Amino acid sequence: MLRYIIKRLLMLIPVLLGVSIIVFLIMRVFSPDPAPIVLGQHATQQAADAWRQVNGLNDPIYLQYYHYLKGALTGDLGTSYYTKLPVVKEIMSRFPATIELAFVAIILASFFGIVIGVISAVKKNSIFDNAGMFIALIGVSMPIFWLGILLIILFSGALHWLPSNGRINPLLAPAHITGFFLIDSLIAGNMDSFFDALKHIILPASALAMYSMAIITRMTRSSMLDTLQQDFIRTARAKGVPEGKVIRKHALRNGLIPIVTVIGLQLGSLLGGAVLTETVFSWPGIGAYTVECILKSDFPVVQGVVLLVATIYVLMNLIVDVIYAFLDPRIKYSKKEV
Amino acid sequence: MRKVKRIMALALSATLVLVSLTGCGSSSTSSSASSSSSKGSDTLVYAQGAEPRGLDPALVDDGESAKVMSNIYEGLLKYDKDSTKVEPSLATSWDVSPDGLSYTFHLRKGVKFQDGTDFNADAVKVNIDRQLPPKVTQDMAYASFVFGSVKDVQVVDPNTVKINLTSPSTPFLKNLAMIMAAPMISPKALKDNNNNVNQQPVGTGPYKFVKWDKDQDIVLVANDQYWGTKPLIKNVVFKFIKDNSARVVALNNGEADVIDGIDATVVKQITDAGNKIFQAPGMNINYMAYNTSRKPFNDKNLRTAISQAVNVPEMVKSLYKGYSEPATSIMPNFMEGYDKSISQVAYDPQAAAKTLKAAGLTTVHMITYTNPRPYNTATGQVLAEAIQGYLSKVGVTVKIDSYDWTTYKQKVKEGDYDIAFYGWVGDNGDPDNFMNLLSDPDPTMNIALYNNPQFNDLIKKGVATPAGDARNAIYTQLEKIAAADAVWLPVSHAQTLCAYRPNVQNFYFHMTGITPFVGVSKK
Questions:
Q1: What would the pLDDT profile of B346-385 be if each residue is shown by its tens digit?
Q2: Contact assessment for residue B392 and residue B299, using Cβ atoms and an 8 Å cutoff
Q3: Distance CA B242, CA A275 (A)
Q4: Residue B165: enclosing H or E segment and its boundaries?
Q5: Taken in order B354, B355, B359, B360, is the CA torsion positive or negative?
Q6: The pLDDT of residue A208 is above 70
Q7: Which of A215, A227, A235 is nearest to A138 (CA)?
Q8: What is the average per-residue pLDDT within A37-64?
Q9: pLDDT tens-place string over residues A96-122
Q10: CB atoms < 10 A from the CB of A307, how many?
């Protein structure tokens, strides 16, 4: 197992190299020149040239990449052209918001997705099944920003139950320890902050969860239907195992592998930042910020974020594979078995 | 399986214990936090559409930063509330030498920066010197605009500072009231923060910086040591809500007290909810420019004919729904140098058709931009299409090429167009700042590529003439030359629309794009 994990981690190196080369080239070939954007409307041609020189943009592209790679290996991703702050700092000040939102959303999505999926499979072709699949269809088809705006209009605009934007009332924000407001407010023991943060996260997390929930519901249903056809289920029933236990212990556990895969991949993509949700709810995460930086040709930030997201994606895949082994003891990643 | 159950039970109970423990400790901290809830009258929440770039006036150039900085910093001078005339601020008075080359400022005594250090002549010198050669860096966006004419700064005594210029420059005084480059920063803060206070601003203004949560908000608190009229509201929160409709919901829902960046389509929704609209005059111009450097529009008569074909007031009303003023001049009417006698080519489609037919002009190539701009919320493309409609009525077919803003600027630079669209947002409220666009050698500034020696000479004269009626007359004359030559078709001056809750008192948005909160209160 350990060997397998190490092997997979080593595979990260070529993946990240490839990703960094691609994003580096794309930004430099297709993005407009950052100098006029950074220097503003009064910038002269000479100032722009001087700025490009200082920032190494006049060097040949392989040299630029070499300097970038050298920095990246020592953990220095450069500084943002636009704000002049270190890229690592810019990313880390936004990443906790993305993680917090992604985790709350994936928890909501997994819980409702698995519950609806299992019931739909067990009560196949019933009204509940049809209703569940209808919800799933809406979930995959509805544009997320539209759902977000509807939620805001209903729960903030009309009912005034929940706030429409932001992570927390700034005057209640807890001291940054982990960067996750739900956890930081608990550490500080400040329940006002905790409930305020909770109120703020409900709408964006629900909007974000909708799509993932729909996918998880569908996957759970089809996986459960497959498993329920298997011989060992019939055997279990024939042995007189209660139906509830058959479903939970025998069918669900065996059907979990594709579900876990889907959840893992969904979480991976949510961690990459949910651009539309973040924009609609003014959620200060990494997704909307990256888009902004792409539009401003802020090369170092875009490169940094893409590297981070690629790493997360690869790691999520690895974690999912490792979880398989725990879910199904028949799966082994040792050399002997291969 | 049983093992898994046991682990889960353990984890659950551990969580419960943790929650109950932290719940016990909450009583002391929560009471202090809830007392400063944003719903109270001691906190004002201002929602803007984007995050400021930074809070160091020398290092930023964006309007979003300006709104926040105008509450933290002050300059030697400031603008009058309803115009761009300058008034004393950190300087109580000033003398200009007869040759217009030295400005002596008498500074306000007893003013302290928010970090407790003294404001004095040395501080003024530090602030200006960092934006002059050799210390100035390329990313100081406004350094050369504001201080480009400065030769050096001399400390006469702790309360007097003398600024020497390389050549007389009347706009210099207006520059000193700007929120970019000109405000005074604590020299200690500059030293402590490696000459970049983007994240740690320290000024002399009515509000102090508290914190900035990236992509969320900036919190300011009233400066108790402020030398002037004390602010009425204790906390000011600048929130960043990018989505326009979400910003409107936040206002109507009471999560924001004031919002900006709204357009005409949501005005009714806002007023129906009982909130108010503030219409600020705009220091900008939205225009169409003829390429005067080549055929066909090196011919003044053809430029005039095309301008005659467009009914500007009708078009502006339909495109901007009453939230832009049709332009009769290049400068907005609140600026010195504006005069009622200035007028543009009058609408006369018959005359236009006749001239164009005689000249055989049937096709025109326009380039335009697809993004909304501060001076043209409808986008350049919509404006170009409206003009295309008018020109089709006089027998001219228009070919429009549209580009996103960044690409568009490149296309303008290449200069391959008969007509192009642009606009300008004024920097310092001085007439030179608008009129010199037509004498600028840079093709991305002077997109009409207009080059009239008489005009250029008058521009030079205007810069050197001391403020007053004689100077204003020069700019009126410049406006008239540009109108007679039909170099541009001035279209409109966009207003800035803000909305606020009915319990907010004395809110205003200045035409230079700043929102001082010092006199604002909440019922």
A1: 999 999 999 999 999 999 999 999 988 889 988 999 999 9
A2: no
A3: 12
A4: strand B160-165
A5: negative
A6: yes
A7: A215
A8: 84
A9: 999 999 999 999 999 999 999 999 998
A10: 18
Q: Which residues of B touch A188 (CB under 8 A)?
A: 29
Helix axes B312-320, B380-392, angle to 10 degrees: 140
Give B176 to chain A, closest Cα distance, Å: 17
Closest chain A C-alpha to B308 CA, distance in angstroms: 31
What residue in A sits closest to B246 (Cα-Cα)? A280
AA letter at B122: D
Tokens of B14: 């551990």
Q: Which residue has the tokens 């409709």?
A: B245
Separation between Cα atoms, residue A38 and residue A82, nearest integer Å: 6
What is d(CA A42, CA B444) in angstroms, rounded to the nearest whole number?
10
Instruction: Report the DSSP pairing between strands B235-240 and B160-165.
Output: unpaired
> What is the C-alpha R_g of chain B?
27
Phi, psi of B290 (to 5 degrees): -90, 140
- For the segment B4-41, what is each residue's pLDDT rounded down to a tens digit? 444 444 444 444 333 333 333 333 333 333 333 345 67
Secondary structure letter of residue A172 according to DSSP: G
Nearest Cα residue to B221 out of B241, B240, B201: B201
Between CA B292 and CA B307 the distance in angstroms is 14
Q: A294: which 2 tokens?
A: 């792409």
| Identity of the residue numbered A270 | L
Q: B50 Cβ partners below 8 Å, 6+ apart?
A: B62, B64, B240, B242
pLDDT digits (tens, 9 = 90+) for A171-192: 888 888 888 999 999 998 889 9
State mean pLDDT over B294-308. 96
A90 and chain B in contact, CB less than 8 A: yes
Q: Tell me the chain B residues in contact with residue A84 when contact means C-beta distances shorter than 8 Å.
A: 54, 59, 139, 196, 198
How far apart CA B523 and CA B521 sit, in angstroms, is 7
Interface of A with B in 266-325 (CB under 8 A): 279-282, 284-285, 288-289
Nearest to A282 among B59, B196, B240 (CB): B240
Q: Does B406 touch chain A (CB under 8 A)?
A: yes
How high is the ipTM of this complex?
0.79
Chain A residues whose CB is inside 8 A of the B198 CB are 83-85
Residue carrying structure tokens 């705006």: A149
Close Cβ partners of A216 (under 8 Å, ≥ 6 residues apart): A109, A110, A113, A114, A117, A259, A262, A263, A266
- Contact of B19 with B488, CB cutoff 8 Å: no
Q: Tell me the chain B residues in contact with residue A173 when contact means C-beta distances shorter than 8 Å.
A: 213
In eight-state DSSP terms, residue B112 is B
